[in-house]
Write a structure and sequence with these properties.
elongated, two-stranded antiparallel sheet, 7 helices, mainly alpha, single chain
Length: 196
């Protein structure tokens, strides 16, 4: 023990200030509520049962917990609402959920709402809606497709004029310019004659 004192070591806890590893703790056996006996259990020094281990928290979750439960975040003696801290996507998703719940609630109350709607007809102004892209005539679709190809070819030609060396596929695309332009002119003439 004199050696331990000179080295600043507590003999009771070993070299590193912990209980010696050779001394396991024993939890005595006990009686269960149904009358059976539990066996005595040997536990290593420093062992923590899984039930008692603290759950890992990231710094972000610690910060959010502190922010939400802190009295410093109170404005006019009222906690800040969660909507103030939502991102744009979170607000959008919250609105979707709210609308979905309202629609579900509306479906349950639909018979009552239907009677009210029948009693009070509402006059609405007809609104001229633009046709959906799928409602376009095949000629219009083809014209859009060819116009896009022409725009890409013109962009490619401006890059070539600026000094970029085109590869084989780009050269083939540039070679088709006159053919595509002729098709565009033909389709435009056809659409003008039809009146679209």
């Amino acid at each position: 023990s004199d050696v331990y004192k000179r080295q600043g070591i507590n003999a009771e806890y070993g070299k590193y200030g912990r209980q010696a590893m050779s001394e396991p703790r024993v939890i005595e056996g006990s009686r269960r509520p149904d009358g059976t006996m539990r066996k005595a259990v040997k536990v290593r020094p420093g062992y923590t049962p899984p039930d008692e281990v603290r759950k890992f928290e990231t710094r972000g979750s610690q910060f959010r917990h502190l922010r939400d439960n802190s009295t410093l975040c109170m404005v006019d003696n009222a906690p800040m609402s969660g909507a103030d801290h939502m991102s744009k996507a979170q607000k959008k998703n919250a609105a979707k959920r709210k609308n979905k719940k309202a629609a579900a609630a509306g479906a349950e109350d639909a018979p009552a709402n239907a009677l009210v709607a029948e009693e009070k007809p509402v006059a609405t102004k007809p609104v001229a809606e633009a046709p959906a892209p799928s409602a376009l005539a095949p000629e219009e679709k083809e014209l859009r497709k060819l116009s896009k190809k022409l725009r890409e070819i013109e962009k490619l030609q401006s890059n070539v004029d600026a000094g970029t060396v085109p590869d084989e596929t780009q050269l083939a695309k540039l070679a088709k310019r006159d053919e595509i332009q002729a098709q565009v002119d033909k389709l435009q003439a056809a659409l003008e004659s039809v009146g679209l």
